[in-house]
C-alpha cells in the first residue's frame, strides 16, 4: 500500500504557511515545498473473507476451491482528458471554495498524465497475465472526460500499443514537457480480449450535459472553437434561488449556468471572487507544471482568449463513440459492441448493451449494461444518475431470464453502481417523476425511469444465478452486500448477491482490480476481488501522475471511504427522500456490509480486498458438479 501523511483537515485559508488551500491545487510548483506527493510503500492490504450472504456464516470455514471459473481484470474511469481544450470548467475549482474546490473531477494536475497512467496500467496487466493468464479484461466506462474524439482515440490507441500524441491544438511543449511528449504505448498482450462499458463521460459534456440538448448554448461548437469559453459557475446549487429547480434531488440547472442566465452568482467567502460569468481556462502545454492560463472573470479580459482550434476535439454521439471501438488492432473487434443484436442497434441509436460468455465450457455469462441517462430525457440537472429506459430494461430482464433458464452464473458489468449513493449526490438511481414530495420531481424531465430501484433489486434477487454487479463511476473501491430476505425476515442466501466498485485510474488511489471466480466444494462460489497499484518507474510521467494524485488527496481530502446513511429525510429538511438501499432499513444507519481496508503504517487506505462468498441453488450446484 502507498503510505503518506494526511492532515486532520484541509488547509482553511489562502497563502498559508502550512500548506495549500484546495482552491490552490493548481499551484503545482509549490508541492515539494510543502511535502505533497511524497510517499513510501507500506504493508500489503489483506484479503478479507466475507460470509455475509451465507446462512451458516457463524463458524463457517472456507471450503476447498474445486475449479476456477473465470479470471479477469477491470479498469474504470480512466478519463483521458484533452487538458488544452477550450471548453473546460477548470476555473470553478480555483474560484469556488464552497462547491468547486474539492470537485477534482473538473480540475486536478493529474489530467495532464492520463494517457501515461493508462499505459503503465496496461504494462502492469501484461506482467500479471504472464504470471497467471487472464481470460479477459473489461473497462467499466468513462474512458473519456468529455466525449471527445481525440480522447477516445488516445484511449484505444494506448491499449492497441500505438504511438501516442498526448497533446492537441498547437501541441505546445511536445519537444520539452514530459506530459506533452509523444510516446510509444506498450499495448495490451494480444492474447487478452477486452470489452467496453459506456459511461456518462463517454457521451455527455464533462459527464453532465447532453451536448445537443439546447443548440442555442453552442456546446457542440465550443469543442472545436479557437475561443476559450465563458460560462457561469455550474456547481452552485439552485436551492431556494431558482424556481422550480429548488428541491433535492434536483439540484442544478446546468443549462442556465452555461448560458450565463442563472440568477445565482458566485460570491466566494474564501477566494473573494465574485461574478456571474468566467473564462474557464486551459492547461498551458508549454509549462512543465501544467500551469492554468486564460482563466478569470470575463470582464477582466479585453477580448476573448484564444487557443489553436483542433477538429479532433469534436464531440461524439453515442453511435460515433461506439464505432471507434471497431477501429482497433486488439481483440475482439468492437470490444463487445459487435455483439449488440442488430434489431436493438436499429431500435435505439447507440444501444450499448450486450452479453458474452468468456469460456464456452463454463456456464458464466457477463451482462454488459448501459445504465447511463439519455441525451433526450429533458433534465437540466447533472446527468450522473443510474437509469434504464424501456428498451434497456426489457433487454436486461430477458438476459437475466435467459441466464436462469440456461443454468448460467451471471455477472453484471455496468458503469453506475446501485444502492450506495445518497439522494442529492447526483449518482443515485434517477427518479424524476416519482419523488416522495411531488415538488421534488424534475420539472424539465420528459421521460421517466422504466424501473424503480426497489423493482430493479427485486428482479436481480429473483435471479438467483446472479453473483455480482460490478461498477465504476464513483471512483471508490466500495464492496457491498445486497441480501435478500424471506417473508419471515430470514436471509435467503441463493437470492443475495454482491456489488464491487473499482476506483478511478485518474485520481487517488489510481487502482484497478483483478477478479477470480471459483466454484467451491460446498456448493458456493467465491469471488476474489483484489486492488492493484499500477507499477510506475521512477522518473516517468506515470510516476509524476501518482505523485500528483497523492498530493491532490492531501490537499483536497475528498472522502474515499464512503458509506451513505440510509436517511428518511434530506439532511437539514423534512423532505422525504427515496431509500438509498431497499435491502435495509431507512433509519439513518450506515451500511454494515461496507468496509474499507485498515493497514498498519498506512494513515489513509481507500482500498479493499475481499473474497466474497455466494450460495448457489441446488439446481446450479447439480449443473456445476456435472461439469467440474
Can I get a quick summary?
With 628 residues, the chain is of the alpha/beta class. The chain is built from twelve helices and 22 strands. Strand 14 and strand 15 form a beta hairpin.
Task: Provide a descriptive summary of the structure in words.
By secondary structure, the chain is of the alpha/beta class. It has one domain: 4-Layer Sandwich (Purple Acid Phosphatase, chain A, domain 2). Helices cover 18% and strands 16% of the residues. It contains 12 helices and 22 strands. The chain has a 7-stranded mixed sheet, with no helix packed on it. The chain has a 6-stranded mixed sheet with strand order 14-15-16-17-19-18, with helices on one face. The longest helix has 18 residues. The chain is globular, with a radius of gyration of 24 Å. About 1% of the residues have low confidence.
Mean pLDDT: 94
Residue share in helix: 10-25%
Low-confidence stretches: 239-246
Q: How many independent structural domains? A: 1
Percent in strands: 15-25%
- Secondary structure class reads alpha/beta
Top-tier CATH class: Alpha Beta
CATH topology: Purple Acid Phosphatase, chain A, domain 2
User: How many strands appear in the DSSP assignment?
Assistant: 22
The CATH H-level homologous superfamily: Metallo-dependent phosphatases
Calculate Rg over CA atoms.
Answer: 24 Å
Count up the helices: 12
Quickly give the CATH architecture.
Answer: 4-Layer Sandwich
How are the strands of the biggest sheet laid out side by side? Answer: 3-22-21-20-4-5-8
Overall form: globular
Give the termini distance in whole angstroms. 36 Å
Amino acid at each position: 500500500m502507498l503510505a503518506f501523511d494526511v492532515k486532520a483537515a484541509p488547509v482553511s485559508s489562502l497563502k498559508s504557511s502550512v500548506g495549500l488551500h484546495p482552491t490552490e491545487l493548481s499551484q503545482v510548483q509549490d508541492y515539494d515545498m510543502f511535502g505533497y506527493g511524497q510517499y513510501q510503500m507500506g504493508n500489503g492490504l489483506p484479503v478479507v473473507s466475507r460470509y455475509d450472504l451465507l446462512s451458516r456464516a457463524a463458524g463457517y470455514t472456507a471450503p476447498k476451491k474445486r475449479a476456477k471459473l473465470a479470471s479477469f481484470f477491470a479498469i474504470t474511469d480512466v478519463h483521458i482528458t484533452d487538458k488544452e481544450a477550450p471548453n473546460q470548467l477548470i476555473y470553478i475549482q480555483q474560484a469556488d471554495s464552497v462547491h468547486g474546490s474539492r470537485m477534482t473531477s473538473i480540475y486536478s494536475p493529474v489530467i495532464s498524465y492520463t494517457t501515461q497512467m493508462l499505459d503503465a496500467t496496461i504494462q502492469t496487466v501484461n506482467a500479471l497475465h504472464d504470471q497467471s493468464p487472464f481470460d479477459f479484461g473489461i473497462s467499466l466506462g468513462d474512458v473519456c472526460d468529455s466525449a471527445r474524439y481525440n480522447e477516445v482515440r488516445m484511449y484505444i490507441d494506448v491499449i492497441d500499443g500505438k504511438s501516442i500524441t498526448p497533446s492537441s491544438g498547437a501541441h505546445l511543449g511536445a519537444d520539452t514537457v514530459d506530459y506533452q511528449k509523444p510516446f510509444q504505448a506498450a499495448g495490451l498482450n494480444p492474447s487478452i480480449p477486452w470489452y467496453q462499458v459506456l459511461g456518462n463521460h463517454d457521451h455527455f459534456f464533462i459527464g453532465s450535459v447532453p451536448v445537443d440538448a439546447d443548440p442555442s448554448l453552442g456546446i457542440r461548437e465550443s469543442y472545436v472553437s479557437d475561443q476559450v469559453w465563458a460560462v457561469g459557475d455550474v456547481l452552485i446549487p439552485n436551492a431556494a434561488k431558482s424556481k422550480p429547480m429548488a428541491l433535492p434531488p434536483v439540484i442544478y440547472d446546468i443549462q442556465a449556468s452555461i448560458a450565463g442566465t442563472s440568477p445565482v452568482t458566485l460570491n466566494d467567502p474564501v477566494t473573494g471572487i465574485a461574478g456571474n460569468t468566467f473564462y474557464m481556462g486551459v492547461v498551458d502545454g508549454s509549462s512543465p507544471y501544467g500551469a492554468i492560463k486564460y482563466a478569470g472573470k470575463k470582464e477582466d479580459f479585453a477580448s476573448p482568449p484564444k487557443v489553436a482550434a483542433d477538429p479532433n476535439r469534436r464531440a461524439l454521439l453515442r453511435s460515433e463513440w461506439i464505432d471507434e471501438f471497431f477501429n482497433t488492432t486488439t481483440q475482439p473487434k468492437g470490444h463487445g459492441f459487435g455483439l449488440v443484436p442488430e434489431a436493438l442497434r436499429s431500435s435505439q441509436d447507440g444501444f450499448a448493451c450486450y452479453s458474452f460468455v468468456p469460456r464456452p465450457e463454463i456456464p458464466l455469462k457477463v451482462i454488459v449494461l448501459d445504465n447511463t441517462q439519455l441525451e433526450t430525457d429533458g433534465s437540466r440537472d447533472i446527468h450522473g444518475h443510474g437509469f434504464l429506459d424501456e428498451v434497456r430494461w426489457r433487454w436486461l430482464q430477458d438476459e437475466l431470464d435467459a441466464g436462469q433458464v440456461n443454468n448460467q452464473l451471471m455477472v453484471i458489468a455496468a458503469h453506475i453502481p446501485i444502492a450506495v449513493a445518497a439522494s442529492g449526490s447526483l449518482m443515485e438511481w434517477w427518479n424524476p417523476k416519482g419523488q416522495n414530495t411531488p415538488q421534488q420531481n424534475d420539472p424539465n424531465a420528459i421521460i421517466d425511469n422504466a424501473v424503480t430501484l426497489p423493482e430493479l433489486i427485486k428482479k436481480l434477487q429473483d435471479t438467483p444465478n446472479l453473483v455480482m454487479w460490478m461498477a465504476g463511476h464513483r471512483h471508490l473501491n466500495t464492496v457491498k452486500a445486497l441480501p435478500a430476505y424471506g417473508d419471515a425476515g430470514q436471509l435467503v442466501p441463493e437470492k443475495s448477491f454482491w456489488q464491487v466498485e473499482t476506483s478511478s485510474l485518474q485520481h487517488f488511489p489510481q487502482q484497478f482490480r483483478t477478479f477470480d471466480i471459483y466454484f467451491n466444494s460446498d456448493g458456493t462460489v467465491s469471488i476474489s476481488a483484489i486492488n492493484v497499484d499500477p507499477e510506475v518507474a521512477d522518473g516517468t510521467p506515470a510516476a509524476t501522475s501518482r505523485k500528483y494524485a497523492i498530493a491532490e488527496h492531501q490537499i483536497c481530502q475528498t472522502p474515499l471511504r464512503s458509506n451513505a446513511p440510509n436517511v428518511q429525510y434530506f439532511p437539514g429538511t423534512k423532505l422525504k427522500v427515496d431509500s438509498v438501499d431497499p435491502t435495509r432499513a431507512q433509519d439513518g444507519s450506515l451500511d454494515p456490509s461496507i468496509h474499507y481496508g485498515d493497514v498498519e503504517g498506512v494513515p489513509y487506505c481507500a482500498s479493499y480486498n475481499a473474497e466474497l462468498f455466494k450460495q448457489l441453488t441446488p439446481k446450479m450446484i447439480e449443473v456445476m458438479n456435472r461439469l467440474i
